[in-house]
Amino acid sequence: MNSPRQGTMQIAVEHYLQDRRRLGFDLTIAGQQLIRFARYADEHGHRGPLTVDLQLDWAHADRPDANPLTAARRLEVLRPFARYYRQFEPDSAIPDPRSFGPSHRRLTPHIYTEGEISDLLRQAGQLRPVSGLRPRTYQTLFGLIAATGLRLSEALRLHDADVDLRDISHAFVTVHETKFKKSRLLPVHPTTADALYAYREVRDRLAFLQPGRCFFISSDGRALPKRTVDGVFAKLRDRLGWIARGGHPHPRIHDLRHTFAVRRMQLWQQSELRVDDAMVSLCTYLGPARISDTYWYLTGVPDLLTPVANRFERFACQTTEVIHE
């Protein structure tokens, strides 16, 4: 293989990714971003040292009007590669990480109402062909994510053997080796299990089934690509005319996961459970690496902040009374 100095930017990125992965770094998403940068650089005839202009131009090249957060995160991915590339081109520049502002900002999620989720599932059930597998697939997929808080990628990777419906009253889903290399067993509510069972029956009757198949499939038996699912969701969202109530431009599939966490917290508040103890269970169920990451799903949500503020106000008043005594 050519050395990075001798070849294109794509060759340099391939060398970099190989070196980092040998050290144990996964770099799945970052790798995809760097490959896109390499193609951009090669298509623009880049040779020699990396310039600041090239890197900044790529960071917002195809989305100049997008949220600056996107460009900031692209730059964050690019900077370690630029440092690596300096050993071959010492005059290469490393862009200022503040060029587009902070790369990690916690934007408020869109918390769906029960009515919005019902509308989404109803619209998904009307996808064409109405008598085919497609509407049932999307209706069940979005319903499962709303009911369990699964990530979309986790739901799409579920295999048939991962969905245990032998006892509807004690059904569960097994999620293998997910974002943080952890596996977890998720009990599902009987109503969710009923929906999964009904989908499996229709799927087995209408679709061509392949060995080792995924649970959610297209009509030809293949796994559903994430890009396709995102496209279908966007069309349904546009039909429903939703207006985003969070910090993102539009409601997202991932906001169903936030909604699951928020609604669970609201139920605990209504039941007057100790939230800190209950959060351990929620952290296990959702599967983040740290419990602090689970709290992130709950930040900045008015429905949760109001009762918290009221509770703090009562605490403050009681403390003031004690001091005055």
Please name the defining characteristics of this protein:
hpI Integrase, Chain A; 3 domains; 3% strand; 325 residues; 54% helix; 13 helices; single chain; globular; mainly alpha
Distance between the termini: 80 Å
Largest sheet geometry: 3 strands, antiparallel
* Total number of helices: 13
Kindly state the number of beta strands. 3
Q: Supply the number of structural domains.
A: 3
Outline, from the CA principal axes? globular
CATH class of the largest domain: Mainly Alpha
**β content, as a range?**
under 5%
Q: Say which CATH homologous superfamily of the largest domain is assigned.
A: Intergrase catalytic core
| Shape-level CATH architecture of the largest domain | Orthogonal Bundle
What is the helix fraction of residues, given as a range?
40-55%
Category from helices, strands and their pairing: mainly alpha
Spatial sequence of strands, sheet with the most strands: 1-2-3
CATH topology call of the largest domain? hpI Integrase, Chain A
Average predicted local confidence, pLDDT: 86
Instruction: Give the uncertain stretches in residue-range form.
Output: none
Work out the radius of gyration.
24 Å
